[in-house]
């Protein structure tokens, strides 16, 4: 399976993301707009849906409730929802832990932990990929001021559950590929300039662009 992972479009054009070959799945990791309307969300999501075989998304902290509802109504949202595709469980947690900016879709660290509790355990032979707009504390979460602002509950979840891959975003300058235990943590950086290609065969390889 070949996955295109993008995050933090913030209303930017998706034109440069439409021409990749062999993509089986697109995963959008939130902040599709910056508090924009449903129409603005559709302008970013629909071209990606039309260009590729399948797309799923989670909202970010800047995505309004009406846009979140539109993703749900279209069957695209993985916010607190799981699906199984070719032996892979995808589970998502959208929004972010509390920020200094009072954005439309943020919540307390405790609530974030409750949302993670809905993630199913993989059966033998299955892989687990977690989509989280918020990065875990200490991985892909370092701000320009050098502060780590990721979720402690997510870090704890990763250590306990050991998903194969965590795809996150939120912290633009936190673009990184790293590890927590055996789990690959990827913050692709803000699209459309940056994105990640994930290839899943016997193992998982991730390339940042």
TrEMBL record:
Sequence ranges assigned to domain Calcineurin-like phosphoesterase in this UniProt record: 1-173
Gene Ontology molecular function: hydrolase activity
InterPro entries named in the record: Calcineurin-like_PHP (IPR004843), Metallo-depent_PP-like (IPR029052), UPF0046_metallophosphoest (IPR051693)
Domain of life: Bacteria
Gene3D superfamilies: 3.60.21.10
Protein name per the record: YfcE family phosphodiesterase
């Amino acid at each position: 399976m070949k996955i295109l992972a993008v995050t933090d479009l913030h209303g930017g054009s998706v034109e440069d993301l439409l021409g990749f070959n062999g993509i089986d799945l697109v995963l959008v990791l939130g902040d599709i707009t910056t508090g924009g309307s449903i129409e603005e969300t559709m302008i970013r999501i629909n071209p990606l849906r039309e260009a590729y075989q399948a797309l799923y998304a989670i909202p970010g902290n800047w995505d309004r409730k009406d846009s979140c509802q539109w993703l749900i109504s279209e069957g695209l949202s993985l916010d607190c929802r799981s699906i199984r595709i070719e032996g892979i469980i995808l589970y998502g947690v959208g929004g972010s832990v509390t920020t200094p900016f009072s954005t439309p879709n943020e919540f307390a660290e405790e609530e974030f932990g409750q949302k993670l509790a809905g993630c199913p355990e993989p059966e033998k032979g299955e892989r687990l990929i977690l989509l989280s707009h918020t990065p875990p504390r200490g991985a892909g979460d370092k701000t320009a001021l050098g502060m780590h602002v990721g979720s402690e509950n997510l870090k704890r979840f990763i250590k306990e559950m050991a998903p194969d891959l965590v795809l996150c975003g939120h912290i633009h300058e936190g673009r990184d590929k790293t590890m927590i235990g055996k789990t690959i943590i990827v913050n692709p950086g803000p699209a459309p300039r940056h994105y990640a290609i994930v290839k899943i065969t016997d193992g998982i390889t991730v390339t940042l662009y």
